[in-house]
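Record 1 of the preview.
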Amino acid sequence: MTCIVGLVDGDRVWMGGDSAGVSGLDITVRADTKVFRNGDMLIGFTNSFRMGQLLAYKLAPPPHDPEDDVFRYMVVDFVDAVRACLKDGGYAQRSNDVESGGTFLAAYRGRLFSVQSDYQVGEAVRGYHAIGCGADYALGSLASTAGLPAEERVLKALECAELFSGGVRSPFSIRSLDARPQLALTEAA
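->
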């Protein structure tokens, strides 16, 4: 289920997501969004709406020392907070002594990070990323639309994913976040 798309555009990160809730062959178009702001972060999730709800309403991103490297902050401080949040919320799983969570994108300080189910943090060199069952279609679209305005690229990537993936449905939620934490979030429907 799902397609979440993230795109870095100068000092702004754009993120969009679909509205599909999928269980087997059943699909429900959900009113609750998969892309949201939490403090100075923009987050888009896949896997489970429960995980997304915990990230939106229970996760308290820890303070970030401006002297501390952003990637280190994401890998250590932020992931530790996510792990605790998912564990306390009953979502984190443990199998063969290995803990796992879910997959999501996080925009922070003008950068785009992917957090995988094993809590590894990645940052794509190309400046865009996608997750979920529609990710491959979205990535192909993003690669072919360089030069277009960022919001249009994100929308086209989601439309492409919906066209080819049975687990992706509009309406799409597209938001952006400026690198400077004090600037407002923009939203498009």
